[in-house]
Amino acid sequence: MDFYLSNISQVPKEDVPIKGTKGAKIQWLITKNEGAHYAVRKFSLEKMGVIPMHVHKYQETVIITKGKCKVCVADKEFELKEGDYIFIDSQVKHAIIAEDELEFFCVIDYVDDMSIKTLNEDCP
C-alpha cells in the first residue's frame, strides 16, 4: 500500500487489554495491516483512569495531547502534561494514571513477542 488516509473519529475505541486497566480506551490508527513497520495508537483515559504497571518487549513513545497524568517508569515518577512526551525502552516497567481527562498518542515498534505482562506493583 502506498498510503493510507482516514480520520480518528472513524476508528473504533476498544478497551485497553491490560489486566487492571480502568477507564481507558485505545484506537489503533496505523498498524502492520496498512503495511507499517510500527503502530500508532491513540489512548483516551477518564479522570483517574489507570493503565497499571506493566512491561513488554516493544519500545514506545507516548505523546500527551490533552490533560495531565502521572507516569511511573522504572522506579521514578513524572508529571506529564499536554505537549510532553516520553520514550520507554523495551522491558522497562511503567504505568499511567490520568489526573484529568487524558489523551495521548503512542508509537510502538513490532517485535517477535507483542505480549504484555501486568506487574503486581503500584507507582513508587
From TrEMBL:
It comes from the Archaea. This is Cupin 2 conserved barrel domain protein. GO terms for molecular function: metal ion binding. The lineage of its organism: Archaea, Thermoproteota, Thermoprotei, Sulfolobales, Sulfolobaceae. The keyword Metal-binding applies. Transmembrane segments: none annotated. Residues 44-107 form the Cupin type-2 domain. It holds the Pfam family Cupin_2.
